[in-house]
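Bumping my old thread because nobody answered last time. Still need a sequence for this structure:
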C-alpha cells in the first residue's frame, strides 16, 4: 500500500468520525500544521513526509493489538498536549 493511499484512508476515517461531514483538504492541512498544497501532494502521492513511510512500516510490523495500544497511547498523549 502506498503512503498516499494511507493518507486517503485516514482522511476518510476522520470524516467518518464526524458523521460523514466532509472535511476540506484546507481544514485537514490546518489541523496538521502544513500548507494545503503540501497536504494535497501527500494525498496525490506527489510527495510524502519523510517519516511517514517509516512510521507506517513500523506499525505494520506490530501485531494488531500492539498497534492499536500504541496508537491509543499516542492519541492520548496528543490530546494531553493540546489541553
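Sorry it took so long. Here it is:
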Amino acid at each position: 500500500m502506498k503512503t498516499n493511499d494511507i493518507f486517503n484512508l485516514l482522511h476518510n476515517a476522520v470524516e467518518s468520525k464526524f458523521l460523514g461531514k466532509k472535511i476540506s483538504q484546507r481544514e485537514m492541512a490546518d489541523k496538521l500544521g502544513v500548507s494545503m498544497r503540501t497536504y494535497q501532494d501527500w494525498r496525490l502521492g506527489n510527495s510524502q513526509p519523510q517519516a511517514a513511510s517509516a512510521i507506517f512500516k513500523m506499525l505494520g510490523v506490530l501485531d494488531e493489538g500492539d498497534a492499536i495500544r500504541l496508537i491509543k497511547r499516542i492519541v492520548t498523549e496528543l490530546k494531553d498536549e493540546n489541553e
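The mean pLDDT is 86. Let me know if any region looks off to you.
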